[in-house]
Design a protein that fits this description.
By secondary structure, the protein is α+β, with helices and mostly antiparallel strands. It has seven helices and five strands.
Length: 218
């Protein structure tokens, strides 16, 4: 058996390399567009709110404050007068009665218990809120503050008071963005030999924020 029968020819090796490269290109293109499709809307939202956050001082917003009041049914007062551990939530019947009276749901939220009041902070994206209940009389006082939709979107950008579901969404979105950028970088590498300006542009994109940080951020 001669060498030509045991070793692949240069043409065969080149064919295998082209086939391997074609497979990698197909995989990278697939993952690149899938990650782009998954993150497109959220990336647009985060890009826009990046601008609004950067110019927050120049974007005026007039908070709208709404106050409400009500009274807890007397049959539930004993639930407030009983001893409570620090941060213990309101009893379920009390929380339901408060929600019906003032339209704010304090169920499951930590409570600041004092000798006279039960206070529940209810922060939310784009605003704030709280409920206070007089333990002796059952008088309910509530207040909500709305700072507008720009503040709402800015708080979503920061994940401020947005809850567990949004917390995990940000992580999934960040993962999709990482996949998008890494597959884009690998695609650049595969196409770079036909596009001589690829790496100089990538280097400029890296150098610009580094230079700005070194020269202007102190």
């Amino acid at each position: 058996m001669n060498a030509s029968q045991t070793s692949p020819s240069p043409a065969t090796i080149a064919k295998r390399k082209r086939k391997w490269r074609s497979w990698w290109l197909k995989q990278l293109h697939s993952w690149h567009w899938i990650s782009a499709a998954l993150s497109l809307t959220a990336m647009l939202l985060f890009a826009i709110t990046g601008i609004t956050l950067n110019h927050a001082a120049s974007i005026g917003a007039k908070p709208v404050v709404v106050e409400k009041s009500g009274t807890l049914p007397r049959s539930l007062l004993h639930m407030l007068s009983a001893p409570h551990t620090a941060d213990a939530p309101l009893p379920v019947p009390v929380a339901k009665a408060v929600a019906n009276a003032v339209g704010l749901d304090p169920a499951g939220k930590p409570v600041e218990w004092s000798d006279s009041d039960a206070y529940v902070a209810l922060p939310r994206p784009g605003g704030d809120g709280w409920v206070s209940i007089a333990r002796a009389t059952g008088a309910i006082t509530a207040e909500t503050t709305d700072r507008g939709w720009i503040s709402y979107l800015n708080d979503l950008h920061k994940g401020r008071n947005a809850g567990a579901a949004w917390f995990w969404f940000i992580d999934v979105f960040a993962g999709a963005c990482i996949l998008f950028t890494l597959t884009g970088l690998l695609l650049l590498q595969l196409h770079a030999r036909h596009r001589p300006s690829t790496w100089p542009i990538v280097a400029a994109g890296l150098a610009l924020p580094v230079l700005l940080a070194i020269l202007f951020i102190h």
